[in-house]
Amino acid sequence: MDGSFCKQILMKEVGMGVSRRQFFKSVAGTIAYAAVISAVPERVFAAWNQKAFMSETMAAAIAAKYGNLPIEDSAAIQIKSPEIAENGAYVPVSVATTIAGASNITIFSEANFAPLVASFDILPRMRPDVSLRLRMAKTANLVVLVQAGGKLYKAVKEVKVTIGGCGG
Amino acid sequence: MQLSRRDFLRILGLAGAAGLIPGLASSRTPGTDIYDMQEFGDIRLLHITDTHAQLMPVYYREPSMNLGLGSSLGRPPHLVTGSLLKYYGISPDSPLVHAYTPVNYVGAAERFGKVGGFAHLKTLVERMRGEFGSEKTLLFDGGDTWQGSGTAYWNRGMDMVEACNLLGVDVMTGHWEFTYFQDEVRKNIAAFKGDFVAQNVKVREDALFGGAQAFDEASGHTFRPYVMKTLGKHRIAVIGQAFPYTPIANPSRFIPDWTFGINAIDLQQLVDTVLSKEKPDAVVLLSHNGMDVDIKLAQDVTGIDVIFGGHTHDGVPQPFEVKNAKGRTLVTNAGSNGKFLGVMDLKLGGGGKKEYRYRLLPVFANELPANKKMQSLIDRIRAPHLATLQKPLATAGGLLYRRGNFDGPFDQVICDALRKRNEAQIALSPGFRWGTTVLPGQTITMEHVLDQTCMTYPETYARDMTGQDIRNILEDVADNLFNPDPYYQQGGDMVRVGGMTYRIDPTATMGSRIDEMRLENGERIEASKKYRVAGWATVGAKSPGEPVWETVAAHLQELKSVEIHKLNTPVLRNIGNNPGLDLT
């Protein structure tokens, strides 16, 4: 998880206006990659919440992460993910929001053993637009929570994982 | 009885007069043939789709079962026979009944003859272009063009590229095109004289990193996402939408660098960009989504004037009008196997609600003389393989076809062959919608078998599966067909079964639709018990057995005459009086 967490932040901050291949080339190799990572402010790493990430239910993970902040559904959260996954072991997901003052984006996969998949702290000068790849064992809802001020906003999208092999 | 040409034209003319298009009926003169299009509007857009490499005229029976549930209940394309005729106001004595439905199929097929064939299609395309002014017309091909015949398989699709170049296809997108190796796909596209477009095919990031070729490295698009076409003084944007689930429904191992999806959000952004940057007179989407997905997409995405759709092989006589937040999008579907040419005349201007005239013209081969150039190309393509194609295998004791939600007689033949040749209790065969029709009394040739089976992963298998495995497969495929949200469907029909029966409630949720699974002898299929299962067309990895066409051909040669007395259709629950079902 840490790998894609860092990589995605880098993409958003460094990747603007650079083609993907150029970007990947520019950070290719462990040394270059590590060097750029070290430039990310230390407080990005400060938010790791062991209890939330290890929780076995979504409710417990939400409680561990946010306490009992109120949650409301929001159409201002855009989840880009495949409706049917090409490979459940590697599901690309992007989340963007237009909610003002968004300070955190957290992504859950309901059916995973530990439903909290990733949590992104959004710093004031970052665009609230993150992407990652996650593993899903079976069909489940992706649940996204965005924190802004003292409130949580929620959006849901189902990702179907098929066994395949016999379809038309 | 075959009709004389004169009688044929007269009947077709009456069909035109019978009011297929409300509002046009009165302006139509009896005695003119259905191919007479009254000129209308500024541009003419022609559309073929899902021809499945059928270069020669064929028989193709439309389905008598195409269930629609929830929001798709009772609306196109989920209408069959009488429900379809009533919805579109088609007179029961019109020959269009034969084109759009399976009503009195055998008699009508004998009367009107074969449909499609690229030489006949070429004649119709030339006529539609010539009379309107070629420079104001475009010909679209929605894909599933390079697969479905022995000749396409042996030529890895290149024969169809040649045929489409001669036909004059301007823009295409794809699905089964991607069942060749990605280098072959690129080679075919390079030889194609039109534009191959797909906004929803991207190069995987890791493949890009490894140096894989892309149309646009910044966006990741594998192919050109859209193309601008100039028609006289007008400019049209044509966006491509390939089949979104290609690497799931077909083997991803052939195209490891490419990733697909519906990508509705990307599509909206692209439409918005095209509208502001190109300022086109019209935006069309050439789609291989399938009609239900297209209808939902037309609700979700604004700014598209027409979606020319395919994949689900629905011969839909008129566009379905979808209202969305900013206007209206027309959704068409133009059938399959070269049977139809969609013709849309569009009046430009008028913002989000352009006036149009549309006809889904059946290609009656007897009434459209073969174009000589195309026929000689087809003859050249077929010549090296003619002996194989024409090899007689058996006689059809009854009507053989595939299309239907759960079963078709030709699938019964395939399942019987798989079970017998592999000594299996149960057979599974994919619910494809391609494959042509054989009339009673006709000789079944190797070409017919290839029409039903020819693809790049035809290998068979026989292996032990538990009852639970079998149920999981049925549930998985049933959800691809009956998920209430079209974005979660894959198109195609239910997997066909041999040697077993089951019960299905299409309205139930995923995982709880199937029960009452029994072997042929009535014995209940136990979840933990193992059964010998034979099948073909495995998507995940190559199977060890012979190509399925060899299995089927050997079976047919033993049978000599094929009699299928009863379709292996499951017991249906909670379907009620569905207009997508006609059991008569």
Describe this structure in words.
The complex is a heterodimer of chains A (168) and B (584). Chain A is built from five helices and eight strands. In chain A, 26% of the residues lie in helices and 31% in strands. Chain A folds into two domains: 1-40, no CATH class; 48-159, SoxY domain (Immunoglobulin-like, Sandwich), CATH 2.60.40. Chain A has helices at residues 2-14, 20-27, 30-37, 50-54, 58-66; strands at 71-73, 77-80, 91-97, 102-109, 116-121, 129-134, 140-148, 151-159. In chain B, helix 7 (158-167) packs antiparallel against helix 13, helix 15 (409-422) packs across helix 18 and helix 16 packs antiparallel against helix 18 (548-559). Chain B has a six-stranded mixed sheet with strand order 4-3-2-1-13-14. The longest helix of chain B has 16 residues, at 467-482. Chain B has 18 helices and 24 strands. The chains are: A alpha+beta (168), B alpha/beta (584). Chain A binds chain B through residues 19-22, 24-25, 28, 78, 80, 82-87, 92, 139, 158, 160, 162-168, and chain B through 205, 208-209, 211, 217-218, 220, 245, 247-249, 252, 259-262, 265-266, 428, 430-433, 472-473, 476-477, 479-480, 483, 485, 487-488, 490-493, 495, 510, 535, 537-540.
